[in-house]
Inverse folding.
């Protein structure tokens, strides 16, 4: 199996793909109790094989499993931790023109956190067994266990101080990453929304109301992510996707400027997936903080609309970004995944033909820009 040179990889994608109707129906039947576990796994396997072939056919050197075994990009992972449950959210993104406001799902910690068993390791093993190019697995950021609920979402008897809580969270992540590495994983992506939320001026007052300092949290979260990945193998590449939300309403506003210096210089990852498909992300000026040896993957191709971007338009935006970071420190991707979870599929916006066209566009433009 060829291994991509991730330092020079110019065409990438964020992870989730549109679930085929057959898989949606299988998940519904399984939920209703009319399909056995092993039959659902067979349906997932078939859908993942087709998704991997799609990515390879359009020319990607890195593939994911489309996150087809998950109902949610974050809950399927975090709810496997011991003593983690759903809890009340205390952060709202308000109405961004989609008709309703949105309070993202939060989590509650009811006791000492643990990892009873590996979580996504078998998912990765299957992906690696069928991929002809480099397989990538995505996991949610450890910051999600704190940000959306704050101190009040964490049991005080189990964690009278947050330092112990953060240490336990990092230890669970290290254990999962250790097992992923043993299974052959050399490209790991962490999906984080909270650095984007901390750029949003509407969120800062809510953070203060939870008793947190919005200026200090980026430093706290940088330390948490670093602790979580601190034992990864030297040849494992870690990327961080800073997600702004992909739903019709409730996305983060504001450019990356408030967190850019911490994001690029205090977090020990080498690839950053940044959403730049709409003006709400601000300009490319924050890329001036990107140090040598790190890559900003520009999410310029939207997964929120079926309209296909033009090659010339994408090239102009890459040229704009190259005013602030060297061209050899840039890459291209869709701005987000195509389906963050079951029920968040983009049928109303586009179908699988449009998805293929957008993925192919990323590969073609990257080849033309970076030769």
């Amino acid at each position: 199996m060829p291994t991509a040179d991730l330092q020079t990889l110019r065409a990438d994608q964020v992870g989730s793909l549109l679930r085929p109707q057959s898989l949606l129906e299988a998940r519904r039947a399984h939920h209703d109790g009319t399909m056995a576990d092993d039959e659902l796994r067979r349906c997932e396997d078939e859908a993942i094989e087709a998704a991997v072939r799609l990515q390879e056919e359009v020319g990607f050197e890195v593939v994911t499993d489309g996150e087809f075994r998950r109902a949610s990009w974050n809950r399927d992972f975090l709810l496997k931790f011991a003593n983690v449950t759903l809890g009340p959210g205390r952060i709202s993104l308000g109405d961004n023109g989609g008709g309703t406001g949105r309070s993202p799902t939060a989590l509650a910690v009811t006791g000492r956190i643990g990892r009873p068993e590996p979580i996504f390791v078998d998912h990765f093993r299957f992906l690696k067994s069928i991929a002809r190019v480099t397989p990538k697995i995505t996991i949610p950021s450890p910051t999600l266990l704190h940000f959306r609920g704050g101190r009040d979402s964490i049991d005080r008897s189990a964690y009278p101080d947050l330092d112990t809580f953060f240490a336990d969270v990092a230890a669970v992540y290290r254990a999962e990453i250790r097992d992923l590495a043993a299974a052959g994983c050399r490209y790991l992506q962490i999906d984080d929304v909270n650095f984007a939320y901390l750029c949003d001026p509407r969120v800062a007052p809510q953070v203060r109301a939870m008793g947190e300092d919005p200026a200090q949290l980026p430093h706290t979260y940088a330390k948490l992510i670093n602790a979580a990945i601190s034992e990864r193998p030297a040849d494992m590449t870690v990327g961080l996707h800073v997600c702004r939300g992909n739903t019709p309403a409730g996305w983060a506003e504001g450019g990356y400027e408030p967190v850019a210096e911490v994001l690029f210089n205090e977090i020990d990852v080498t690839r950053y997936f940044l959403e730049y498909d709409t003006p709400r992300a601000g300009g490319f000026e924050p890329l001036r903080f990107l140090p040598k040896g790190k890559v900003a993957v520009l999410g310029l191709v939207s997964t929120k609309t079926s309209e296909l971007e033009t090659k010339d338009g994408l090239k102009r935006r890459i040229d704009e970004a190259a005013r602030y970071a060297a061209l050899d420190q840039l890459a291209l991707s869709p701005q987000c995944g195509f389906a963050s979870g079951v029920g968040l599929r983009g049928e109303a916006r586009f179908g699988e033909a449009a998805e293929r066209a957008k993925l192919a566009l990323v590969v073609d433009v990257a080849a033309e820009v970076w030769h």
